[in-house]
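Backbones bend. Shown next:

***
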Amino acid sequence: MDISHAPTQGRTTDGRARLYDSIVDTVGDTPCIKINTLAPEHVELYVKAEFFNPAASVKDRLALSIIEEAEQSGELTPGQTVVEATSGNTGIGLAMVCAAKGYPLVVTMADSFSIERRRLMRFLGAKVVLTPRTAKGFGMYQKAKELADANGWFLARQFETSVNAKIHENTTAREIMADFKDKGLDYWVTGYGTGGTVSGVGRVLRKQWPDTKIILSEPANAQLVGSGEAQERTAEGAPAVGHSAFEPHPIQGWTPDFIPLVLQESIDRNYFDELIPVPGPVGIEWAGKLARSEGIFTGISGGSTFAVAMQVADRAEAGSTILCMLPDTGERYLSSPMFEGIAEDMTEEETALSLSTPGYHMPDA
């Protein structure tokens, strides 16, 4: 029998019908996925799964934009070292892009962030310089600037660079509008780290879909925007000091101890309709619910954004469509509080299952 033309059963794929010249060409076009179990029945709730980017976070977009725009402007020359301060995801994205393009990378990072983030960056070829957690985000930021000034390195400046919001205006916003062009979008929910996502997407939605309500969130115990207190800045727009409203929080990647210049655009131009704080433990709880009820594996920042999206969904008008940003994968958080209580060895229930049949027991079962 010639099986080449036999009928197929079940799911099939046809391929992307294209070949990629580099890993960086796979950045973007992440899917929006419907929430089927957790969402209230009177709304449709979707998540934009940024962990489908090649280095598994939304910051791949920013990393690629920083490097390519600097190449085009001449700020970054072949073989020049790139340096940046990061809580992890931007650094991992930069490590991926720099590896593909042949640039050395040095990352500065407070030692409070998850160990797997440093190891991922080092695995991708970057050097990671740790700064004391007591110096917070401002300390790692200043260390990156010191290293750039001392060595003539290219400072990525994710918190101030105009190309941050630009990449989200050019990609993320266009993807959202393409995916919801027929259905429409009533609410878009996001957190902020640098502010690039909300500022870039906000530019587009405010002009083209002004009826879409933009919901911004930040940690409940570190409400920098919610405090109403202005950020002190240098002449270049960099933070001059840490923000007094900051407290340490478990939502890694969100809310450094200053208001980034990129985010300031959203504040000054009223890009968001509502600011909803969320406690870190609630974000961890909802990340777990997403994993167990929907099979969607995101980190604390994604869980926190989703917790806010659920608040919005509960009170939204019937028939509303809501989109929630999920910035990264849960694998970035294995050594964080998100995985406390997740056993490495068999639980009692698992041991009992093992002993319920006669063979292949672990020695200590």
